[in-house]
């Protein structure tokens, strides 16, 4: 097993890397904790262009079939709890025993940030990604009628997916303002971030509105006069002037208390109103899931545009630790197509180290493909992701010059 | 009450799958072979998977993909297993998570401290 490359994470980045390596006749083992291969690609479902759907399950099946054809090995339901470097090997400790490898790729993806709101521990409250997986992957409705707390790219995309599956979304609202919801509870901030997803809105009203809103003064006016009952997107009210201040229920979710918020996010006293729902989704956004890189000893940098703390890495997807690579959302929050492209870069970098026929031009082309894919992305999780990528490039160059001097 | 999505406008009809049975707190339930325990229980209206070890408040799934450990249950005698990433197998014995004794606090309560 020591001669095979190990990839942790069977999502888009991991699968794409596994296929690329196997195509170069390099043995690969892909480890994943989940029941199925595909990672969070599985839940994805959206209309890229009219009548052309991005179906994550079909994409996963296609990648998996290719990987299996190339004899990529999979070890599912395998949780990696620790990793360490012993001599030249990365040693992984899992619930299915110890794995050794000289070349390790971390493609662990992302996790969701929660909003702690009174009542959020009641059964029936779940992350928005949980509702997506229940609906699209397991084909079980999270409930009959719910509210989504948190207005962002992910929550609006999943709201539509729930609606397609005949699960009613009563509203998408803001979370109540508290120390942990600072930007997500401020109507103006949220409106700003929404302007970048306006191309996804089928309603011409929002499209025209968002062009109009690029001016700061108009934006303030816009949020001041934003309808209290929200603007409808796909028939779902998006309420930028309401916040959920409490989730109520005895043994499970029975409703939420909504209140009107001022443009600074503060609550209008006396505006509280209860609505009945049987489930609640919390959409606090995504951050890179990078604990294993931390255990390995990678230096981390906080880059807001990439979604949080990211392990130091270069464009070739190398970390500064020998034999340790990263690809996909662990390097910054972006869509599955970017992850697929990054997986290929990481695999070519690893393959070249293992003496396969890979030229620097091949790697360079794969890097350029990441950039093109990013530029053409349907969904941008952070509007300034390019700024974030540039920051990481600069930090890498600085760190490297320190090491050399 | 929740339900299964048998047909979906984009993803199509749910493929026919083999069924298995399992118990949750000594009650018999059915699941599709290989589906997650959390999904099988939710499809049958079970949302509370455990109670908080100290307060006894009900808890269910939160992240549904293995990150948060909110859905921990006892599976075939093993504590702390995550219902969201465990596939149901025939004859699986599942117990919900229970409150644990808080001995110091209980002692204080009973001794007026």
From TrEMBL, chain A:
InterPro entries: FAD/NAD-bd_sf, FAD/NAD-binding_dom, Metab_Enz_Cyan_OpOx_G3PDH. Pfam families: Pyr_redox_2. One of its GO terms (molecular function) is oxidoreductase activity. Keywords: Oxidoreductase. The keyword Oxidoreductase applies. The keyword Ribosomal protein does not apply. Residues 4-343 form the FAD/NAD(P)-binding domain. This is FAD-binding protein.
From TrEMBL, chain B:
The keyword Phosphoprotein does not apply. Keywords: Oxidoreductase. InterPro entries: 2Fe-2S-bd_N (IPR042204), 2Fe-2S_ferredoxin-like_sf (IPR036010). GO terms for molecular function: iron-sulfur cluster binding; oxidoreductase activity. It comes from the Bacteria. This is (2Fe-2S)-binding protein.
């Amino acid at each position: 097993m020591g001669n095979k490359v190990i990839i942790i994470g069977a999502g888009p980045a991991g699968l794409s890397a596994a296929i690329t390596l196997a195509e170069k006749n390099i043995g690969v083992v892909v480890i994943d904790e989940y029941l199925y291969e595909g990672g969070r690609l599985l839940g994805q479902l959206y209309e890229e262009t009219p009548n052309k759907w991005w179906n994550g399950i079909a994409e996963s099946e296609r990648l998996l079939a290719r990987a299996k054809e190339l004899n990529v090995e999979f070890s599912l339901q395998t949780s990696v709890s620790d990793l360490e470097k012993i001599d030249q090997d990365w040693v992984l400790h899992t619930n299915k025993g110890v794995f050794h490898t000289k070349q390790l790729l971390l493609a662990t993806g992302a996790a969701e940030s929660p909003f702690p709101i009174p009542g959020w521990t009641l059964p029936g409250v779940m992350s928005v990604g949980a509702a997506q997986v229940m609906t699209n992957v397991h084909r079980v409705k999270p409930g009959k009628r719910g509210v989504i707390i948190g207005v962002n790219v992910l929550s609006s995309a999943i709201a539509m997916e729930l609606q397609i599956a005949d699960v009613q979304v009563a509203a998408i609202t803001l979370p109540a303002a508290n120390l942990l919801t600072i930007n997500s509870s401020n109507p103006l901030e949220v409106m700003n971030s929404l302007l970048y997803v306006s191309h996804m809105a089928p309603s011409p009203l929002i499209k025209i509105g968002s062009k109009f809103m690029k001016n700061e003064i108009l934006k303030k006016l816009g949020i001041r006069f934003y309808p209290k009952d929200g603007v409808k997107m796909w028939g779902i009210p998006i309420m930028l002037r309401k916040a959920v201040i409490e989730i109520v229920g005895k043994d499970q979710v029975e409703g939420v208390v909504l209140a009107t918020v001022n443009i600074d996010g503060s609550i209008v006293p006396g505006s509280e109103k209860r609505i009945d729902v049987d489930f609640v989704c919390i959409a606090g956004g995504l951050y890179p899931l990078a604990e294993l890189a931390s255990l390995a000893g990678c230096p981390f940098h906080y880059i807001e545009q990439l979604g949080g703390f990211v392990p130091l890495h270069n464009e070739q997807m190398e970390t500064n630790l020998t034999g340790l690579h990263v690809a996909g959302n662990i390097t910054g929050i972006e869509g599955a197509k970017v992850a697929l492209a990054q997986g290929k870069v990481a695999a070519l970098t690893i393959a070249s180290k293992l003496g396969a026929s890979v030229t620097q031009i091949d790697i360079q082309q794969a890097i350029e493909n990441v950039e093109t894919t990013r530029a053409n992305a349907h969904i941008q999780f952070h509007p300034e992701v390019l700024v974030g990528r540039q920051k990481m490039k600069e930090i890498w160059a600085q760190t490297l010059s320190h090491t050399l001097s | 009450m929740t339900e299964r999505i048998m047909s979906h406008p984009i993803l199509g009809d749910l493929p026919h799958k083999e069924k298995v049975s399992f118990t949750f707190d000594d009650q018999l339930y059915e699941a599709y072979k290989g589906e997650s325990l959390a999904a099988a229980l939710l499809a049958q209206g079970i949302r509370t998977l455990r109670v908080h070890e100290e307060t006894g408040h009900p808890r269910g799934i939160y992240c549904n993909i293995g990150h948060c450990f909110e859905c921990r249950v006892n599976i075939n005698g093993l504590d702390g297993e995550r219902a969201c990433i465990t596939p149901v197998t025939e004859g699986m014995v599942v117990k919900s998570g229970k409150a644990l004794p808080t001995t110091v606090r209980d002692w204080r309560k009973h001794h007026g401290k």
